[in-house]
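Quick question about two entries, pasted in order.
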Amino acid sequence: MPAPGLTLVRRKLGTLRRVVQDGGARGMLTVAGQYARAVGRYVPNAENLRTAARGRSFLDARRKYGRPEDGVLVFFGGIGDDLMMTVILREFARRGHRRAFVMTQAPELYRNNPDPAAVLKWDIYYLRWLDAFGWTRLRPHYARYVKELDADLGPPGHIITTMCEKAGIVGPIARKPYLELDEAERAAGRLAPNQIAIQSSGLSARAHMETKQWFPERFQAVVDALKHDFTFVHVGARSDPPLEGTIDLRGKTSIRETAAVLANSITFVGQVGLLMHVARAVDCRSVIVYGGREIPEATGYGCNENLYSPVECSPCWQRHHCGHGMKCMHLIGVDEVVHAVERQVARAGTPVPVDTDVITTEGVRTRVTDDGRTMLTLYDMNENEYEVEAKFLPGASREGVSAA
């Protein structure tokens, strides 16, 4: 009698035959072989059975969207990282590369976004199918975490620039993420005249970091100092510390609903994290309490008031442990944040400047294929070598790129 796991695999193969029957015997044998590699030669363990269960949805996506000629963007990080991948997709589109898929924890980030050819829900077992079918994975990581130090190795430049470099983008880029709201969504986010959005903590994030946290009582003092002239809307997770005198939306809004609140706010007051990137995506200036863990030049936006403490130990890139009593955060007082809010209020109604950067192939090993594509040899955060096609703007010079 066959093992239960093997029986399940055989049943799944029957489904695959029905899915690909229009491909004839050759097509069926090809898919069956790829299926075998994906589930690990039919070993009936839990991991392989979970992989097998994703087979039908993967093949449905393959039939619906075709093959991702420009790769599949995947980031094993936070939702903010998924949002920043919209920059890569926009720069791909500007360069005529419109066959990239994205795999994300939050598909709603990409609603109304014309840039990805397909949006896939993040799933570790689904990834095995991508590999089995030879789909190229693009992993635009910008920093490596060192567990022994509980710290990140800081990126060589701005994280968005580094992400674009890892995906093969060459030339000028705009360092701005994108989240497309429709008119109804945007209208629903307007709750009061002169509204300011505020978040009191980022500890609810999946990849939270204690060294990014300012102090709830100081956020409250900021509200108290300004609440007679502005309406504060408290966004974030239900577990975030409450703030009196605000419209309390903690835990009550989706990412898109929060984005709509930000889009209608004069400014956002918070810390480094997801909502800082969401605010930039909807053109809401921010006041960000940086402290000293990381530098604004590496993770921030020039349109924001970035309150950074250049103490002797900064930037430390520590995630949770500080041997200096969070001196960098203590140095940022309530008055400093209040004055930063007032400066952002004074800028309301003026165009929000967009940061730019230029990526070159200087110092990068290149080769030109027989069909004229330029390939770049790059390195991931673990120093593993990989090759990716360079994406140039139409008509851009390829000076410095030589044939193989």
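Here is the second entry:
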Amino acid sequence: MDKITVNLGTLASLGVLEWLIALAGVSVTAGVWIWFLSGRTHARPRNSEQAQEARVRVKGRYMPDRVFVEAGRPVRLTFFREETAPCSEGVVFPDYGRHVSLPAYRDVVIELPPSEPGEHEFTCQMGMLRGSLIVVGKDEAIRHSENRTVAVHQSGGSAL
């Protein structure tokens, strides 16, 4: 094993700038190690902030073509394109300013921010395939849930 020797004279001759750079490097390194080794993940959102999830199949149309979600909570839609037709290569959410490519036979997750009640259209890039994201208040979301017309549930598997 090789010995590591430190010349104290060299350390003493470092200027203030060199010490600050060395201290910054050690601090960043320690911070990265602590972050990786702490095992903590991002804070779990409160119930009102948990993402609502739905799967949408794409094969000649969107299935389902009407997705009901609760207002004021983020939405996570997973699109799965079961075809190679050029029309369905992307999905457009004009109200959210989003255009997302949909490769064939792969899940594509689209996260949308919370919004107020209303209807938000989504279409293919040519406008031939159409669907709606329908944002409703909590009472209406419960009613749709009871009628089984809500395609969305909270992360974690509990029904909306």
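Reply: Confidence is low (pLDDT under 50) at residues 39-47, 148-160. The longest helix spans residues 16-37. Hope that helps.
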